[in-house]
Design a protein that fits this description.
The protein has 331 residues and is of the alpha/beta class. It folds into two domains: 140 residues, Rossmann fold (3-Layer(aba) Sandwich), CATH 3.40.50.720; 177 residues, 3-Layer(aba) Sandwich (Rossmann fold), CATH 3.40.50. It is 31% helix and 17% strand. The chain contains eleven helices and 14 strands. It has a seven-stranded mixed sheet with strand order 4-3-2-1-5-6-7, with helices on both faces. Strands 10-9-8-11-12-13-14 form a seven-stranded parallel sheet, with helices on one face.
């Protein structure tokens, strides 16, 4: 019989969906106090037993007990399958789990919340949200010339599940989307697809440039001084990918020089971003604390992905979003 590790909050939420599995599965939970329990009996355990399966999500990784959750996995001698609630795999903690696991699966349903974040920030920029709020704070009745989403030209770099979710929404609102990715051919939500080597040629034509590729040696620091120099001076830059994609001093210098109009970042090179970092106080930058995907809907969809894969696992069927083990080379 296999043992599954869940955060206690996750188990409480999905327990009705796990009824009937007690004959096939041991379930161990860890709570925010770092205590382990037998999920079926609520008996407190002296220590974490060896586990073979685990579901890593917001409950686990944002918990005070994250170290105990990780340790239980990494110390288990025959760990078989890890379901991640995230799409990315480059986080060092996830890499360590990927190296340990025989099978590692990802989740792409957070794209829906992230797409809403992108539309929200773009609308606020196009409709001059900061200027309107400043006028309201000053009690100043003054009309401001704004722009429309309709007809806006988007360049979405990294046109995977997140990019397509954004592209669908932007297209529905009348925007025109160019998606950038390695694989050619049409993709949902994009008027056209271009390869990465077209980046510098595409930047001047875009009203909104959005990054959402993974962090790789090829994408490290891709948004550099030359990148911002090539942008339209009236354009918005947004980053939903990873902080390491952006040369942040180059971004601030470009904003100061008027080479682009505004920037919105959900991710930064250092997280949490230190309070003294000048990005916080730049008048042309909006920062959200890497929470674009943190919604109840994302949590619920992540649970559904896990439950579907758990059913497949217990019935010896193929798992969805399985990552090749070569993606986690031994260090």
């Amino acid at each position: 019989m296999k043992t599954l590790l869940l955060h206690a909050r996750t188990f409480a939420r999905i327990a009705p969906r796990l009824k009937g599995l007690n004959a096939a599965l041991n379930i161990v939970t860890v709570d925010d106090a770092s205590s382990f329990h037998d999920a079926w009996t609520s008996e407190k355990l002296a220590e974490a037993p060896p586990v073979q399966l685990a579901f890593g999500n917001i409950d686990a990784f944002y918990s005070p007990s994250v170290r105990e959750f990780m340790t239980a996995i990494l110390k288990s001698p025959n760990f078989d399958w890890f379901q991640s609630a995230a799409a990315g795999i480059e986080n060092p903690a996830l890499v360590a789990i990927g190296q340990k696991s025989q099978r590692y699966t990802t989740n792409h349903t957070q794209a829906e919340a992230m797409a809403e974040w992108a539309v929200w920030q773009a609308m606020d920029f196009l409709r001059a949200g900061p200027a309107h709020r400043a006028n309201q704070a000053a009690g100043k009745w003054e009309r401001i010339r704004v722009r429309e989403m309709f007809g806006s030209r988007w360049l979405i770099v990294g046109y995977g599940s997140i990019g397509q979710a954004i592209g669908r929404r932007v297209t529905a609102l009348g925007g025109v989307v160019t998606g950038m990715r390695r694989s050619p051919g049409p993709a949902e939500g994009a008027a056209r697809i271009v390869p990465p080597d077209a980046l510098m040629a595409e930047l001047p034509e875009a009203d909104i440039v959005l990054l959402c590729p993974p962090h790789t040696p090829e994408t490290e620091g891709m948004a550099n001084a030359a990148f911002f120099e090539a942008m339209n001076k009236d354009a918005l830059f947004m980053n939903l990918g990873r902080g390491a994609l952006v040369d942040e001093p180059a971004l601030m210098a470009a904003l100061d020089a008027g080479r682009l109009a505004f920037a919105v970042l959900d991710v930064t090179r250092i997280e949490p971003l230190p309070a003294e970092d000048p990005l916080w106080r730049h008048h042309k930058v909006v920062i959200t604390p890497h929470d674009s995907s943190d919604t109840p809907g994302t949590i619920a969809r992540g649970d559904e992905t896990f439950l579907a894969n758990l059913d497949a696992y217990l019935n010896n069927k193929p798992l969805r979003h399985l990552v090749d083990r070569s993606a986690f080379p031994a260090s």
